[in-house]
Specification:
This protein has 432 residues and is an all-alpha fold. It is built from 16 helices and 2 strands.
C-alpha cells in the first residue's frame, strides 16, 4: 500500500512539473507538427544533453595547454563510454546551433515576433548569440591544430573593432596570442558563465511564451475549444525527444568528434579556417574590408532583428508560414536568385583586378569597404523592390524575402569557404 502511494505521489510530481512548463490546456493547432516542427522543445532538450555530457567530461578534462589534449585522448581511449560522451557533446552542440537558428526562423516566418511577443523574440536573439558563443568557447578546448588556429584566426579580427577592439582581444586572450590564459578563460566561460546564463534566460523565455498564451496559432483557430496538455501535447513532445536522442546516439556512434594533431603555435596550417559557423564571414573577408565584415554586417543584422517587432505591419495574420501563394513564389525566387548571384559575385571578385592595386592612392576602407558595400546594398534593394512590385508583397512577405535572400547568401558563402577554399584560400575543387 505504501509503495503504491509513493508511486502515485511521484507520478503527480512529474505531472505537476509538466503542467508548470505548460498550460493545462492548449489550442488544437499547436499540436500540428508542421507549425513548430518541435524546434523549441528540441533546443531545450539539447541544452540538457549539453549540460549533462559537459559535466561528465569536466571530471576528466584538464584546462591547460600541457594537459588539455592528453585529457581528451584519455577520455576517448581509456574511459568507459568516454568517446561516446565526447561525441554526443560535440554533435549535440552543433545540432543545438542549427535547431536554435531554425527555431528563430520559424518564429519569424509565423509572425511570432510581433507585439506583445516582442520581448520573447529579443531574448531569443540573445539566446542564439549565447549558443554561438558556447560553441566558439568550446571549440578551443580540445587544444588541437584545428581548434587552436581557428580561434587564433577569429580573435585576430577583433582588432578591427574601433576603440575597444585591441583591449577586447587582449582581455579575451589574456595576452597577445592564444595561450594558457586563453584556454582558462574559454573553459570558464564555456562551463560556467555561458551555460548558467542560457539556463536562466531559457527559463524566462519559456515563461514569456506561456504568459503570451503559448505557441502562436492562426486567427481562425483562436476561438476553437482547447484540449488537455496531457496527453495530447506531452505524448507528441515525448516522441520527438525520443527520435532526437536516437538520432544523436546513431550520429555519435557512427562519427567521431574531430581531433587533429596537438596544437603547435609555431606551425600554422594552410589554410587556417574559422569554425564552420563563421566561415561565411571569413569568406567575406576575402572580398570586403575587415571593418565591414566584423562590425558593419553583424551590427546591421542584429540591429535589424531587434527592430523587427517594432515595424508597423499591414496585416494581422499569424501562425502561418507563408501568408499567400505569391509570398511563397517570391520566397522561392529570392532563394534561387540569392544562390546564383552569390556564386556570380564570388567569381567576379576572383576574376576582376584587386581594387587596392587599381586605386593605390585611395584608402582601402573606401575601395574594399564603402564602394562594394553600397553596391551590394543597392543591388539587393533594387532586386527586393522588384519582387515586391512583381508579386504585390505586403510588409510581412517583404521581410520574409529579405531574410530568405540573406540566409541563402550566407549559406553559399559558408559552403564555398568550407569546401572550396584550399591552400592560400584559393578556390579549389573539394575532391582535388
Amino acid at each position: 500500500m505504501t509503495d503504491n502511494s509513493t508511486d502515485t505521489k511521484k507520478t503527480k510530481a512529474w505531472y505537476n512539473l509538466i503542467l508548470h512548463l505548460h498550460p493545462r490546456k492548449v489550442k488544437p493547432d499547436t499540436l500540428r507538427f508542421t507549425l513548430t516542427f518541435g524546434l523549441g522543445g528540441m533546443a531545450a532538450l539539447l541544452v540538457v544533453i549539453q549540460v549533462f555530457t559537459g559535466l561528465l567530461l569536466k571530471f576528466h578534462y584538464v584546462p591547460s595547454p600541457d594537459g588539455a589534449y592528453d585529457s581528451i585522448l584519455n577520455i576517448n581511449e581509456n574511459l568507459l563510454f568516454g568517446k561516446l560522451a565526447h561525441n554526443i557533446h560535440h554533435w549535440s552542440a552543433i545540432l543545438l546551433l542549427w535547431v536554435t537558428f531554425l527555431h528563430m526562423l520559424r518564429v519569424l516566418f509565423t509572425g511570432a515576433y510581433r507585439k506583445p511577443r516582442h520581448a520573447t523574440w529579443i531574448f531569443g536573439i540573445i539566446l542564439l548569440v549565447l549558443v554561438v558563443l558556447s560553441n566558439f568557447t568550446g571549440y578551443l578546448l580540445p587544444w588541437d591544430q584545428l581548434s587552436y588556429w581557428a580561434v587564433t584566426v577569429c580573435t585576430s579580427l577583433l582588432q578591427y573593432i574601433p576603440l575597444i577592439g585591441g583591449a577586447l582581444k587582449d582581455s579575451l586572450l589574456g595576452g597577445q596570442e592564444v595561450g594558457s590564459a586563453t584556454l582558462s578563460t574559454f573553459f570558464n566561460l564555456h562551463t560556467g558563465v555561458i551555460p548558467l546564463t542560457i539556463i536562466i534566460l531559457m527559463g524566462y523565455h519559456f515563461w514569456r511564451i506561456r504568459r503570451a498564451g503559448g505557441v502562436i496559432v492562426r486567427e481562425t483557430e483562436i476561438d476553437l475549444p482547447m484540449v488537455d496538455t496531457q496527453p495530447n501535447l506531452v505524448i507528441r513532445e515525448f516522441v520527438v525527444a525520443l527520435v532526437l536522442i536516437a538520432f544523436i546516439l546513431i550520429l555519435s556512434i557512427c562519427f567521431d568528434a574531430p581531433l587533429r594533431e596537438r596544437a603547435n603555435p609555431s606551425f600554422s596550417p594552410n589554410p587556417s579556417k574559422a569554425p564552420w559557423y563563421f566561415m561565411g564571414l571569413q569568406e567575406l573577408l576575402l572580398h570586403f574590408h575587415p571593418f565591414f565584415v566584423i562590425v558593419v554586417f553583424p551590427l546591421t543584422i542584429i540591429t535589424g532583428s531587434i527592430w523587427l517587432p517594432y515595424i508597423k505591419l499591414n496585416d494581422a495574420n499569424t501562425g502561418i508560414w507563408f501568408l499567400s501563394d505569391k509570398g511563397k513564389k517570391a520566397g522561392i525566387f529570392a532563394a534561387t536568385a540569392g544562390f546564383f548571384f552569390s556564386i556570380l559575385f564570388l567569381f567576379l571578385s576572383e576574376l576582376l583586378p584587386d581594387s587596392e592595386s587599381v586605386l593605390p592612392s585611395v584608402p582601402a576602407l573606401i575601395t574594399t569597404g564603402l564602394i562594394p558595400f553600397f553596391l551590394l546594398i543597392g543591388t539587393k534593394y533594387l532586386f527586393l523592390r522588384f519582387l515586391q512590385i512583381r508579386y504585390s508583397l505586403n510588409r510581412s512577405e517583404f521581410i520574409q524575402t529579405i531574410v530568405i535572400i540573406l540566409v541563402t547568401s550566407y549559406t553559399v558563402l559558408s559552403v564555398i569557404g568550407i569546401f572550396f577554399r584550399g591552400p592560400g584560400m584559393k578556390l579549389v575543387l573539394p575532391w582535388n
